[in-house]
Design goal:
The chain is α+β, with helices and mostly antiparallel strands. It is about 50% helix and about 20% strand. It has a five-stranded mixed β-sheet with strand order 1-2-3-5-4. The two termini are about 35 Å apart.
């Protein structure tokens, strides 16, 4: 929402129709954020899954879609919501098997944060997301062709609050997150989360 809001004035000066389109997109995102917040508040009061939003024309929140339809649908929904302001994003989930909700939420939030970083900092033209399951773990990789950065400080941990949060989400599920990047060389985020007793949901 912030990125679109910052671009409205310049877009309007170039083409009022484009400016109006971005304002419409901003309204859609605000309605979706409100619907997602309502769903999260519902979860605090009930152990039942939150109801799907029924307001006509209001985009379904990605986290709500995840709880009802699974990770692949949620990621597809989130990518669709970014298409106005983001680089080209491709998603490969052909080798993925659905997992427990806790793991899928972590994978979704890590992807969400990684894409947020790409949009804010990378100046990328393309992002490739691949999600797969092998005999022992779920693997997530997010690669972009952007400007890159120096991913670690002297203590070996990722710098920046968003990157640390991604790392903590992986570690909370006994997994690991690796960030490979260099200035001018793009960025690859790789996550590996072990399966619980080898079971999927």
């Amino acid at each position: 929402m912030t990125l679109i809001a910052q671009s409205v004035a310049s877009a309007w000066q170039r083409d009022p129709g484009e400016g109006e389109s971005r304002i419409g997109r901003l309204l859609e995102l605000s309605q979706s954020a409100l619907a997602e917040m309502r769903a999260l508040l519902f979860e605090l009061r009930s152990s039942d899954p939150p109801p799907l939003p029924t307001e006509s024309g209001v985009p379904q929140p990605s986290i709500t879609r995840l709880r009802h339809d699974g990770l692949v649908a949620a990621l597809s929904n989130h990518i669709e919501s970014l298409k106005v302001e983001s680089p080209a994003i491709s998603l490969d989930t052909a080798q993925y098997q659905p997992q427990a909700l806790e793991m899928e939420i972590a994978l979704f939030r890590i992807t969400q944060e990684a894409l947020n970083n790409v949009m804010k900092h990378a100046a990328a033209r393309q992002v490739v997301i691949s999600l797969s399951t092998d005999e022992t773990a779920v693997c997530l990789q997010i690669e972009d062709d952007g400007v890159g950065f120096e991913p670690t400080k002297g203590n070996g941990r990722s710098n920046g609050l968003g990157l640390r949060t991604m790392q903590e989400r992986a570690e909370a599920l006994h997994g690991r997150l690796e960030i490979n990047s260099r200035p001018g060389g793009g960025t690859a985020v790789a996550v590996r989360l072990p399966l619980v007793n080898g079971d999927t949901k």
